[in-house]
Amino acid sequence: MLFPRLHLSHSLAERRQRPCISFGITGSLPYGAAGKNLLCLLLIGLALSIAVPARAQVPVYDFEVVAQYPHNSRFFTQGLLVHDGRLYEGTGRYGESALMEINLADGSVIRRVDLAQRYFGEGIAVAGDRLFQLTWRENVAFEYDLDTFERVNAHFIPMEGWGLTWDGESLILSDGSHQLYFLDPDTFATRRRVAVQAGGQYIGNLNELEFIDGEVWANVWMSQQIVRINPETGDITGVIDLTGLADRTERGPGDSVLNGIAWDAEQRRLLVTGKLWSHVFEISLHPRSDIDPQD
């Protein structure tokens, strides 16, 4: 064992019941954890649908589906990326977590490395010839040789692992809060961190990440939005509303929410999917014309 195993409850129910710390909700509510989680999601929705476009004058983008590709609906997608034209995916759940190279055209698995049952796989990122995969609460990030898929190292991380991406200098990690951590890829030491906000309101539950044209794009867990983030300031620069996309695919039972952003820099195309979704979608974006920038 590379690091001591944490003696914690790792159920998905516990993850759903985590406090919405980015909004400061830590006290008791009449309906306990369920009420706390509901209030958290309502606040996220209000922040994204009201505070972001109105008070912060952040542009909102709608989508069109350009193409769709088959995806295994048993895959609990936690990380998605395209590198040199190849699609990579990291999946979660205990006993099911894996790191894979996927054939986009037919959804078949080209290469696969399974994690031990004690690990819950999370976000992935490529940095040079190295491929990294986070774990959720096991405080470890695995490093692989990109060409061989051989595991070559493991790194301690002191926070939960959710999303991961690479900006050319630092690995960028989300831990489910409103913080983004910029890490040294060799030591995983935190170089700096930023708080993500819009209109003076922190936006938490940041999940899967992708670095696109100088911005960090992040899924907001349990929402149908992707936020675009200035990596220097943490300010949200745009909101992508994918409401209705989940209805275009069959989904497996359970936590089948939007999660997975992959940017194909060579072909300038954007791919998105969700946990337990049966499709990966290529989408195009356009500014929402019914948003008045003077509102």
Number of strands: 22
What is the top-level CATH class? Answer: Mainly Beta
Query: Residue share in helices?
Result: under 10%
Tally of helical segments:
2
Walkthrough of the structure:
By secondary structure, the chain is mainly β. The protein has a single domain, classed as Lipocalin. It has two helices and 22 strands. A hairpin with a 6-residue loop joins strand 12 and strand 13. The longest helix has 24 residues. The protein is globular.
Output the keywords.
about 300 residues; mainly beta; eight-stranded mixed β-sheet; 2 helices; about 10% helix; globular; disordered N terminus
Task: Summarize, please.
By secondary structure, this protein is mostly beta strands. Helices cover 10% and strands 44% of the residues.
How do the helices and strands line up, and which of them pair or pack?
Elements: H1 12-16, H2 32-55, E1 60-70, E2 77-83, E3 86-91, E4 98-102, E5 109-114, E6 121-127, E7 130-135, E8 140-145, E9 151-156, E10 163-166, E11 171-174, E12 179-183, E13 190-195, E14 197-198, E15 201-202, E16 206-212, E17 215-220, E18 225-229, E19 236-241, E20 258-264, E21 269-274, E22 279-287
Parallel strand pairs: 1-19
Antiparallel strand pairs: 1-22, 2-3, 3-4, 4-5, 6-7, 7-8, 8-9, 10-11, 11-12, 12-13, 14-15, 16-17, 17-18, 18-19, 20-21, 21-22
